[in-house]
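Morning. Coffee machine broken again, so started the prediction first thing and wrote up yesterday's gels while waiting. Chain of 339 residues, entered below exactly as on the submission form.
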Amino acid sequence: MLKVGVIGAGSVMRAAHAGAYEGRDDVRVAAIAEPVAEWRQALGERLGCDVFFDSYEELLARADVDAVDICLPHWLHGPTVMAALNAGKHVILDKPIALSLAEADEMIATAKAKDLKFFVALNQRFHAPHREMHAICAGGTEGQPFLAIMHVLGDEFANMNNPGHWKGDKEKAGGGALLDTGTHIFDLSRWWFGRPKTISCQGGRFVVEPENKAEDNVIVTLGYDHMMVNLLVSYTACSDPWTEDKAIYFRDASYHLSFDPDRALRKVTGKGAGEPIAVQAEEAWWSASVSACVSHFLDCILGKATPEYGPEAAREVLELLELAYTAMREGRTVEVPEA
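Came back before lunch.
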Protein backbone atom coordinates (compact mmCIF):
# COMPACT_ATOMS: atom_id res chain seq x y z
CA MET A 1 0.00 0.00 0.00
CA LEU A 2 1.45 3.34 -1.09
CA LYS A 3 0.70 6.08 1.44
CA VAL A 4 0.55 9.56 -0.08
CA GLY A 5 0.55 12.95 1.54
CA VAL A 6 -1.26 15.72 -0.32
CA ILE A 7 0.32 19.16 -0.13
CA GLY A 8 -2.13 21.80 -1.30
CA ALA A 9 -5.88 21.20 -1.47
CA GLY A 10 -6.84 24.07 -3.75
CA SER A 11 -9.06 23.93 -6.80
CA VAL A 12 -6.59 22.05 -9.05
CA MET A 13 -6.08 19.32 -6.48
CA ARG A 14 -9.78 18.95 -5.70
CA ALA A 15 -10.99 19.14 -9.30
CA ALA A 16 -8.27 17.12 -11.04
CA HIS A 17 -5.56 15.38 -8.98
CA ALA A 18 -8.05 13.89 -6.52
CA GLY A 19 -9.62 11.69 -9.18
CA ALA A 20 -6.42 9.65 -9.38
CA TYR A 21 -6.92 8.36 -5.83
CA GLU A 22 -10.53 7.29 -6.06
CA GLY A 23 -11.27 3.61 -6.44
CA ARG A 24 -7.69 2.42 -5.82
CA ASP A 25 -6.95 -0.30 -3.28
CA ASP A 26 -3.16 0.05 -3.56
CA VAL A 27 -2.89 3.76 -2.70
CA ARG A 28 -4.17 5.65 0.32
CA VAL A 29 -4.09 9.37 1.07
CA ALA A 30 -2.59 9.35 4.57
CA ALA A 31 -2.44 13.08 5.30
CA ILE A 32 -3.33 16.45 3.84
CA ALA A 33 -1.42 19.71 4.36
CA GLU A 34 -3.51 22.78 3.58
CA PRO A 35 -3.92 25.99 5.60
CA VAL A 36 -7.49 26.59 4.36
CA ALA A 37 -9.63 24.38 6.61
CA GLU A 38 -12.60 24.31 4.24
CA TRP A 39 -10.50 23.00 1.35
CA ARG A 40 -8.72 20.29 3.30
CA GLN A 41 -11.98 19.16 4.92
CA ALA A 42 -13.69 18.85 1.54
CA LEU A 43 -10.78 16.88 0.09
CA GLY A 44 -10.48 14.70 3.19
CA GLU A 45 -14.15 13.76 3.11
CA ARG A 46 -13.86 12.82 -0.55
CA LEU A 47 -10.71 10.72 -0.16
CA GLY A 48 -11.35 9.26 3.29
CA CYS A 49 -8.58 11.10 5.10
CA ASP A 50 -8.92 12.93 8.43
CA VAL A 51 -5.26 13.66 9.17
CA PHE A 52 -4.80 17.37 8.53
CA PHE A 53 -1.94 19.84 8.88
CA ASP A 54 -1.59 23.55 8.33
CA SER A 55 1.96 23.23 7.00
CA TYR A 56 3.75 20.80 4.74
CA GLU A 57 6.68 20.59 7.17
CA GLU A 58 4.44 18.75 9.67
CA LEU A 59 3.27 16.34 6.99
CA LEU A 60 6.80 15.60 5.78
CA ALA A 61 7.83 14.65 9.31
CA ARG A 62 5.45 11.68 9.30
CA ALA A 63 6.96 8.22 8.81
CA ASP A 64 3.70 6.88 7.35
CA VAL A 65 3.95 9.07 4.23
CA ASP A 66 5.86 7.43 1.36
CA ALA A 67 5.21 10.00 -1.36
CA VAL A 68 3.71 13.44 -1.75
CA ASP A 69 1.50 15.03 -4.39
CA ILE A 70 2.32 18.75 -4.49
CA CYS A 71 -0.20 21.16 -5.96
CA LEU A 72 0.87 24.66 -4.93
CA PRO A 73 1.41 28.09 -6.52
CA HIS A 74 4.55 28.27 -8.64
CA TRP A 75 6.90 30.04 -6.25
CA LEU A 76 6.43 27.30 -3.66
CA HIS A 77 7.46 24.46 -5.98
CA GLY A 78 11.20 24.74 -5.39
CA PRO A 79 11.32 24.83 -1.59
CA THR A 80 8.52 22.28 -1.15
CA VAL A 81 9.98 19.72 -3.55
CA MET A 82 13.42 20.05 -1.98
CA ALA A 83 11.99 19.64 1.53
CA ALA A 84 10.07 16.54 0.41
CA LEU A 85 13.08 14.94 -1.26
CA ASN A 86 15.30 15.69 1.71
CA ALA A 87 12.64 14.03 3.91
CA GLY A 88 12.94 10.88 1.76
CA LYS A 89 9.60 11.17 -0.04
CA HIS A 90 8.84 10.41 -3.67
CA VAL A 91 7.33 13.47 -5.37
CA ILE A 92 4.54 14.16 -7.83
CA LEU A 93 4.43 17.86 -8.76
CA ASP A 94 1.99 19.87 -10.82
CA LYS A 95 3.58 21.94 -13.59
CA PRO A 96 5.75 23.98 -14.03
CA ILE A 97 8.76 22.22 -12.59
CA ALA A 98 10.26 25.41 -11.11
CA LEU A 99 10.79 29.13 -11.61
CA SER A 100 14.39 28.72 -12.73
CA LEU A 101 16.61 26.12 -14.37
CA ALA A 102 18.87 26.19 -11.32
CA GLU A 103 15.93 25.15 -9.13
CA ALA A 104 14.94 22.43 -11.59
CA ASP A 105 18.48 21.08 -11.78
CA GLU A 106 18.74 20.94 -7.99
CA MET A 107 15.48 19.00 -7.75
CA ILE A 108 16.50 16.47 -10.40
CA ALA A 109 19.98 15.97 -8.98
CA THR A 110 18.67 15.53 -5.43
CA ALA A 111 16.08 12.96 -6.49
CA LYS A 112 18.75 10.96 -8.32
CA ALA A 113 21.22 11.18 -5.45
CA LYS A 114 18.61 9.94 -2.98
CA ASP A 115 17.19 7.30 -5.37
CA LEU A 116 13.72 8.85 -5.16
CA LYS A 117 11.13 9.10 -7.90
CA PHE A 118 10.27 12.63 -9.04
CA PHE A 119 7.55 13.36 -11.58
CA VAL A 120 6.10 16.56 -13.05
CA ALA A 121 2.53 16.45 -14.36
CA LEU A 122 2.51 17.41 -18.03
CA ASN A 123 -1.05 16.19 -18.17
CA GLN A 124 -1.95 17.02 -21.75
CA ARG A 125 0.25 14.13 -22.89
CA PHE A 126 -2.42 11.88 -21.37
CA HIS A 127 -5.31 13.28 -23.41
CA ALA A 128 -6.15 10.56 -25.95
CA PRO A 129 -6.30 12.80 -29.08
CA HIS A 130 -2.89 14.23 -28.17
CA ARG A 131 -1.47 10.73 -27.81
CA GLU A 132 -2.87 9.79 -31.21
CA MET A 133 -1.33 12.91 -32.77
CA HIS A 134 2.02 11.97 -31.27
CA ALA A 135 1.72 8.51 -32.83
CA ILE A 136 0.91 10.06 -36.23
CA CYS A 137 3.94 12.36 -36.09
CA ALA A 138 6.24 9.58 -34.86
CA GLY A 139 4.94 7.08 -37.40
CA GLY A 140 5.95 9.20 -40.38
CA THR A 141 3.24 7.93 -42.70
CA GLU A 142 2.24 11.49 -43.61
CA GLY A 143 5.82 12.65 -44.07
CA GLN A 144 7.15 15.75 -42.35
CA PRO A 145 4.73 18.43 -41.13
CA PHE A 146 5.52 21.91 -42.42
CA LEU A 147 3.25 24.00 -40.21
CA ALA A 148 1.50 23.75 -36.85
CA ILE A 149 -0.84 26.28 -35.25
CA MET A 150 -1.67 25.88 -31.56
CA HIS A 151 -3.91 28.49 -29.94
CA VAL A 152 -5.28 28.85 -26.41
CA LEU A 153 -7.97 31.49 -25.91
CA GLY A 154 -8.98 31.71 -22.27
CA ASP A 155 -10.27 34.00 -19.57
CA GLU A 156 -8.04 34.41 -16.53
CA PHE A 157 -8.78 38.12 -16.32
CA ALA A 158 -10.23 38.20 -12.80
CA ASN A 159 -7.16 36.59 -11.19
CA MET A 160 -4.69 38.33 -13.49
CA ASN A 161 -6.26 41.72 -12.77
CA ASN A 162 -6.21 41.18 -9.00
CA PRO A 163 -2.84 42.51 -7.77
CA GLY A 164 -3.07 40.35 -4.64
CA HIS A 165 -3.58 37.06 -6.51
CA TRP A 166 -0.49 35.07 -7.44
CA LYS A 167 -1.71 34.24 -10.96
CA GLY A 168 0.50 36.11 -13.41
CA ASP A 169 2.51 37.78 -10.64
CA LYS A 170 6.02 38.35 -12.02
CA GLU A 171 7.69 37.10 -8.84
CA LYS A 172 5.27 34.49 -7.51
CA ALA A 173 4.15 32.96 -10.81
CA GLY A 174 7.38 33.54 -12.70
CA GLY A 175 5.50 34.90 -15.69
CA GLY A 176 2.06 35.29 -17.16
CA ALA A 177 0.12 33.44 -19.83
CA LEU A 178 3.27 32.06 -21.46
CA LEU A 179 4.70 30.28 -18.41
CA ASP A 180 1.30 29.17 -17.14
CA THR A 181 -0.83 27.63 -19.89
CA GLY A 182 1.97 28.10 -22.41
CA THR A 183 3.80 25.28 -20.61
CA HIS A 184 1.29 22.82 -22.07
CA ILE A 185 1.55 23.80 -25.72
CA PHE A 186 5.34 24.15 -25.50
CA ASP A 187 5.43 20.61 -24.14
CA LEU A 188 3.12 19.26 -26.85
CA SER A 189 5.16 20.96 -29.56
CA ARG A 190 8.39 19.49 -28.17
CA TRP A 191 6.75 16.06 -27.83
CA TRP A 192 5.27 16.04 -31.33
CA PHE A 193 7.93 17.84 -33.39
CA GLY A 194 11.15 17.76 -31.38
CA ARG A 195 13.43 20.49 -30.14
CA PRO A 196 13.18 23.72 -32.17
CA LYS A 197 16.14 25.57 -33.67
CA THR A 198 14.92 29.14 -33.07
CA ILE A 199 12.34 30.99 -30.97
CA SER A 200 10.78 34.41 -31.51
CA CYS A 201 8.17 35.89 -29.21
CA GLN A 202 5.95 38.93 -28.87
CA GLY A 203 3.69 39.62 -25.94
CA GLY A 204 2.65 42.09 -23.33
CA ARG A 205 0.24 43.18 -20.65
CA PHE A 206 -2.43 44.71 -22.88
CA VAL A 207 -5.62 44.43 -20.81
CA VAL A 208 -4.56 43.52 -17.27
CA GLU A 209 -3.84 46.65 -15.21
CA PRO A 210 -1.68 45.84 -12.13
CA GLU A 211 1.99 46.48 -12.80
CA ASN A 212 3.10 43.46 -10.77
CA LYS A 213 1.51 41.20 -13.37
CA ALA A 214 3.21 39.75 -16.44
CA GLU A 215 2.02 39.23 -20.01
CA ASP A 216 -1.66 38.56 -20.60
CA ASN A 217 -1.27 37.79 -24.33
CA VAL A 218 1.65 36.21 -26.16
CA ILE A 219 2.53 34.83 -29.59
CA VAL A 220 5.53 32.56 -30.17
CA THR A 221 7.07 31.19 -33.35
CA LEU A 222 9.21 28.08 -33.11
CA GLY A 223 11.52 27.52 -36.05
CA TYR A 224 12.64 24.10 -37.30
CA ASP A 225 14.57 23.02 -40.36
CA HIS A 226 11.41 21.55 -41.83
CA MET A 227 8.53 23.55 -40.31
CA MET A 228 7.21 26.47 -38.30
CA VAL A 229 5.03 26.30 -35.20
CA ASN A 230 2.82 29.21 -34.17
CA LEU A 231 1.76 29.28 -30.50
CA LEU A 232 -0.70 31.79 -29.05
CA VAL A 233 -2.01 32.17 -25.51
CA SER A 234 -4.54 34.77 -24.46
CA TYR A 235 -5.70 35.19 -20.88
CA THR A 236 -8.14 38.00 -21.71
CA ALA A 237 -10.55 36.38 -24.17
CA CYS A 238 -13.36 37.23 -21.75
CA SER A 239 -16.20 37.10 -24.28
CA ASP A 240 -15.63 33.54 -25.49
CA PRO A 241 -15.66 30.07 -23.93
CA TRP A 242 -12.21 28.66 -23.19
CA THR A 243 -10.89 27.05 -26.37
CA GLU A 244 -7.70 25.20 -27.26
CA ASP A 245 -7.34 24.35 -30.93
CA LYS A 246 -4.44 22.81 -32.80
CA ALA A 247 -3.84 22.21 -36.50
CA ILE A 248 -0.92 20.29 -37.99
CA TYR A 249 -0.29 20.50 -41.73
CA PHE A 250 1.41 17.85 -43.85
CA ARG A 251 1.84 17.90 -47.63
CA ASP A 252 -1.34 15.97 -48.40
CA ALA A 253 -3.35 16.13 -45.18
CA SER A 254 -3.99 18.22 -42.12
CA TYR A 255 -5.04 17.18 -38.63
CA HIS A 256 -7.24 19.32 -36.41
CA LEU A 257 -7.66 18.91 -32.67
CA SER A 258 -10.28 20.43 -30.42
CA PHE A 259 -11.43 19.89 -26.85
CA ASP A 260 -14.96 19.53 -28.20
CA PRO A 261 -15.36 15.73 -27.81
CA ASP A 262 -17.40 15.58 -31.02
CA ARG A 263 -14.53 17.15 -32.97
CA ALA A 264 -11.61 15.92 -30.93
CA LEU A 265 -9.43 14.83 -33.87
CA ARG A 266 -10.15 15.19 -37.58
CA LYS A 267 -8.15 14.45 -40.70
CA VAL A 268 -8.72 16.72 -43.70
CA THR A 269 -7.77 15.86 -47.28
CA GLY A 270 -8.88 17.16 -50.67
CA LYS A 271 -10.30 20.37 -49.21
CA GLY A 272 -13.14 18.47 -47.59
CA ALA A 273 -14.78 18.96 -44.22
CA GLY A 274 -12.61 16.32 -42.66
CA GLU A 275 -13.14 12.84 -41.32
CA PRO A 276 -13.23 12.20 -37.57
CA ILE A 277 -10.63 9.82 -36.19
CA ALA A 278 -12.06 7.44 -33.62
CA VAL A 279 -10.40 8.25 -30.32
CA GLN A 280 -11.69 8.41 -26.78
CA ALA A 281 -12.15 12.04 -25.78
CA GLU A 282 -13.69 12.90 -22.45
CA GLU A 283 -15.87 16.00 -22.19
CA ALA A 284 -14.11 16.82 -18.91
CA TRP A 285 -10.76 16.59 -20.71
CA TRP A 286 -8.74 18.59 -18.18
CA SER A 287 -9.66 16.67 -15.04
CA ALA A 288 -9.52 13.36 -16.92
CA SER A 289 -6.03 13.98 -18.32
CA VAL A 290 -4.65 15.19 -14.98
CA SER A 291 -6.11 12.18 -13.19
CA ALA A 292 -4.66 9.82 -15.81
CA CYS A 293 -1.26 11.49 -15.50
CA VAL A 294 -1.16 11.27 -11.69
CA SER A 295 -2.43 7.69 -11.81
CA HIS A 296 0.44 6.78 -14.12
CA PHE A 297 2.94 8.28 -11.71
CA LEU A 298 1.41 6.39 -8.79
CA ASP A 299 1.80 3.18 -10.78
CA CYS A 300 5.44 4.09 -11.46
CA ILE A 301 6.15 4.63 -7.77
CA LEU A 302 4.54 1.27 -7.04
CA GLY A 303 6.66 -0.40 -9.72
CA LYS A 304 3.63 -1.25 -11.85
CA ALA A 305 4.61 0.96 -14.80
CA THR A 306 7.66 2.48 -16.48
CA PRO A 307 7.64 6.31 -16.59
CA GLU A 308 6.65 7.68 -19.98
CA TYR A 309 8.95 10.64 -19.32
CA GLY A 310 11.09 11.98 -16.53
CA PRO A 311 11.44 15.42 -14.91
CA GLU A 312 14.02 16.27 -17.57
CA ALA A 313 11.14 16.78 -20.03
CA ALA A 314 9.61 19.44 -17.78
CA ARG A 315 13.06 20.96 -17.33
CA GLU A 316 13.45 21.26 -21.12
CA VAL A 317 10.06 22.94 -21.41
CA LEU A 318 11.17 25.50 -18.82
CA GLU A 319 14.40 26.04 -20.77
CA LEU A 320 12.45 26.77 -23.96
CA LEU A 321 10.08 29.09 -22.10
CA GLU A 322 13.03 31.04 -20.69
CA LEU A 323 14.40 31.44 -24.22
CA ALA A 324 10.98 32.70 -25.36
CA TYR A 325 11.00 35.30 -22.58
CA THR A 326 14.48 36.37 -23.69
CA ALA A 327 13.22 36.75 -27.25
CA MET A 328 10.24 38.81 -26.08
CA ARG A 329 12.30 40.98 -23.77
CA GLU A 330 15.07 41.67 -26.31
CA GLY A 331 12.88 41.84 -29.40
CA ARG A 332 14.89 39.30 -31.40
CA THR A 333 14.91 35.71 -32.57
CA VAL A 334 17.05 33.54 -30.31
CA GLU A 335 18.94 30.39 -31.21
CA VAL A 336 18.11 27.24 -29.27
CA PRO A 337 21.28 25.43 -28.20
CA GLU A 338 21.54 21.74 -28.95
CA ALA A 339 20.38 19.51 -26.12
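The mean pLDDT is 97. Going to sketch it on the whiteboard this afternoon.
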